[in-house]
Design a protein that fits this description.
Layout: E1 6-11, H1 16-30, E2 34-37, H2 39-54, E3 63-66, H3 74-83, E4 89-93, H4 103-115, E5 120-121, H5 124-131, H6 149-152
Parallel strand pairs: 1-2, 1-4, 2-3, 4-5
Length: 157
């Protein structure tokens, strides 16, 4: 039996179509996992999965939770889930060509994913590598988390 992961799916507006195509291509690999997504991206992912379900996967149920829209706090909700060890992997198709009104939230989300060593894909090719990795099915695999005890216990003068 394949390990059940919690997979976060996020995309900037200009990248939502790319993520929808990626989800449509990988729906069978995503099916066993719990999906978390921010606002509009979540709606698009759910619609894409419903389309896939109608085309060859009857009676299939996807486990998807939709957070708030990124600029309305969804990025921060997702960051909190990462900090609470509730996210196993992050797939974030971000738009490198456009300034985002919530760039600070995006940076904070990516910082937390890095801090907590959450496998993160930022484009289609890295997402393809992650979802096709044998580690997705390895129930024993757990990313190593750096020990920040010395940072927490430091004395500030």
């Amino acid at each position: 039996m394949e390990k059940r992961l919690t997979v976060a799916l996020v995309a900037h507006d200009a990248m939502k179509h790319d993520l929808a195509e990626w989800v449509a291509w990988n729906w069978e690999k995503l099916l066993p996992h719990r999906l978390i997504s921010t606002g509009t991206t979540g709606r698009i992912v759910a619609e894409t999965l419903m389309d896939r379900r109608g085309n060859g996967a009857p009676n299939t149920r996807f486990d998807i939770t939709m957070l708030k829209s990124g600029p309305l706090g969804g990025d921060q909700q997702l960051g909190a889930m990462i900090a609470n060890d509730e996210i196993d992997m992050l797939i974030f198709f971000w738009d490198p060509m456009s300034a985002q009104p919530h760039d600070v939230d995006v940076k904070a989300l990516l910082r937390l994913a890095t801090l907590y060593n959450v496998p993160t894909a930022i484009n289609r090719s890295s997402a393809d590598f992650m979802i096709s990795s044998s580690l997705m099915a390895n129930a024993d695999y757990k990313p190593v988390i750096k020990d920040y005890a010395s940072y927490i216990e430091r004395t500030v003068k």
